[in-house]
Structures are given as C-alpha cells and as structure tokens.
Amino acid sequence: MSESPLLRMTQTTPTCLWNDSADPVELSQAIGWGAVGATCNPVLALAALKSDAPTWQGRILEYAAEHATATEDEIGWAMVKRLSVEAAALLEPAFELHAGVNGRLSIQTDPRLYRDTEALIEQAVEFSTLAPNMIVKIPVTTAGVDAFEEATYRGVSVNATVSFTVPQAIAVAEAVERGLRRREAEGLDISTMGPVCTIMVGRTDDWMRVSAERDQITVDPGIMEWAGVAVFKKAHRIYQERGYRTRLLSAAFRNHMHWSQFIGGNVVISPPFGWQKRFNASQIEPTHRLDDPVDPRIVEDLYDNFDEFRKAYDEDGMTVSDFTDYGATRRTLRQFLAANSELESFVRDVTLANPDR
Fold first, then answer.
1. 176 in helix, strand or coil?
2. Which of 149, 314, 328, 332 could link 179 by a cystine bridge, Cβ 3.0 to 4.6 Å?
3. Is residue 41 in a domain?
4. Reduced to 3 states, what is the DSSP secondary structure of residue 159?
C-alpha cells in the first residue's frame, strides 16, 4: 500500500480527491495521488497563468494578433478557457472510468455576473461545451440559485461555489433536484451528470474570525476552526437524510480538519496542491470521520456567541434573498472580482509592454 495518505483515502474510502487548481503540473501530480477531478476559480486561474508566464505571454500575443479587436477582458477569458480545456484533457481517463460523475474540470462563470440569473445560465451552458468533461461553477448568490435549476435542466453538471452555509447547500441541492426531475420527466439522460455543492469551509471559519474582531467576541482558542467543519457535517447529514443527488465538496483549506474530518463519505475533498503535499507528509490516518459529530460544547459555544454562525448552521438561518449579503459571500466575491481585474492587467502588461524596458 502506498505511503501517501491521500492515495490511501482514495483507495480505501468512497471519498474523492480533486485538485484545487487547473495548473497542469500540479494536476498531473495530484492525479498520481488519486485525484479524479479539479476545481478552479478566478484567483487560481490567474495564478496558473502567472506560474508559466512565458508560455501564456506568447499565447496572449498570438491570440491578440489573430483577434485584432478583442478587448483585454476577452483575451484574458480566452486564456482561462484554454487553460481549462488543457487541464480537462488530463482528466479524461477518470471521466471515462467514472462515467462522468468524476473526471471533470471546474470552470467558473464570470464573477461579474453574480446578480444576473440569465447571464449565469447562458455562460454555464457555453462553458459546458468547451470539453465533454467540464463542470461549471455558479455562485450561490440570490440570483445564482435559479441558475442551478435551469442549467441542470439543460444538461450542465454544476458546481456551486461562493457557498459557506447549510441554507445555501440546501437551496443548491433543491434547485438541482428540480432540474434533474424536469430532465427525467422529459426522458432526458442524467446518468453521466455529476453535480456538486462546494462549502468553502475555511472561509466560513474566516468569517467567524472577522466577526469576532468586529463584535469583540472572545471564545476559547480553536473554537472558530470548527465552524466550517460543523456546517459541512450538518449539511452532509441533511443531504443523506433527504437523498439529494448532489455531492458536497470541501474547499478553501485552512487546517487539516478540512480534509481529515470529512473522510469516509461520498463527498469530494478539493485541497490546493500545497495542502496535498502537507497531508502526504503528515502522519494523519485517512480513517472515516465524516459521521463523527463535532463536540456539542464547541457547537454550543459557536451558536451562543456568533449570530453569523447561527445563520450558517441553522437550516432556516437565511433565506435565498439573504445569500448575496452574507459577509463571507461579499468578501469572496470581492476577491474574485479583484482577480478578474488583475487578469485584465496581466493581459495589458503583455499586449502593451513598456517600450522603454
């Protein structure tokens, strides 16, 4: 048996490993550890382009020469699409092996569309055609929820992102179920679709820390590191009880519990490459912990002290109309929007290089 804890996890449990990057070098290594999928977002896509800047600078200049009227934004997104297609090709063997449920590359819709349901749907459909094994990320904003149903109905495998809470996870699963049922009612195939709902557990923790500073809350050290774990485990229990056909995915890692506490169930773990190396160098055994409850005293401390945790943990802690205004949502959208602007700047630095340098 391999000494890699990640590979042991993929060999001995139903828990799947996806790589949190479309960088081909990182993804190839992760596949060696058992990865059967990959996720990406605007921040990660920009990082992947910059990590091999000479290659992508050449491609940007080539594309700009062939598309004389293309804007910096259009050129940048063309590069993101190309990066995604090339990464998707690495996952084709897993896609065939798992009949479409795994082996997919997540490409994220333009974060600027977070308020526009129809635009999200149309871009999701477009992105799903870039390669047979694409899965498309849509944010769980107020406008995004309806997009999950319609995109699913149109045959798109969706990955919910900008998601941190139990209410968001339930809204996504219900929307996907509506879309799947509409397809089934019309005799359309759903057998190769693989919808997932991400919970950005580390960003749930981050928001508790921000809230503690803002509201001058004092709790025992380490309590806030359990917030995302508690939310994920509760969402998973609800998914199992209700028989949702969407899998949960753990993302935005801040500590090993965002991996180790979720092992054992039919869920997806999507760590950045750096965290995968750390996990493989650790002595943590990949044993079944997903059904182990979080210490009730920890949950009680979070629940009693943090209004933001109650919003995240209770099934009815928020309505769909509240999703866009949730603090973690706003913080994450701002980061993704900033990355989109940085992508344009990256293209601009290539196409309009300073002639004095």
1. helix
2. 149
3. yes
4. strand
Number of domains in the chain: 1
- In Å, what is the CA distance from 193 to each residue of 92, 132, 244, 245, 251? 15, 11, 13, 10, 21
Q: Is residue 2 part of a domain?
A: no
Q: What share of the chain is helix, strand, coil (3-state, %, to 5)?
A: 60, 10, 30
Give yes or no for a contact between 270 and 262, defined as CB atoms under 8 angstroms apart.
Answer: no
Give the structural domain span for 313: 15-347
The confidence score (pLDDT) of residue 44 equals 86
- Pair of tokens at residue 253: 């890692």
- Is the pLDDT at 155 greater than 70? The verdict is yes
Confirm whether 355 is domain-assigned: no
How many C-alpha atoms does 10 have within 13 Å on its Cβ side? 24
In a domain, 353, yes or no: no
The model's pTM: 0.95
> Who contacts 44 (Cβ-Cβ below 8 Å, separation ≥6)?
20, 21, 22, 23, 272
Compute the distance between CA of residue 69 and CA of residue 315 in angstroms, rounded to an integer: 49
Contact status, residue 150 vs residue 118, Cβ threshold 8 Å: no
| Integer-rounded Cα radius of gyration of the chain | 20
Neighbours of 55 (CB within 10 A): 10
The reported pLDDT for the residue numbered 265 is: 94
**CATH number where 142 lies:** 3.20.20.70
What digits encode the pLDDT tens for the residues 13-27? Answer: 999 999 999 999 999
CB 268 within 8 A of CB 247: yes
Q: CA 350, CA 237: separation in Å to the nearest integer?
A: 49
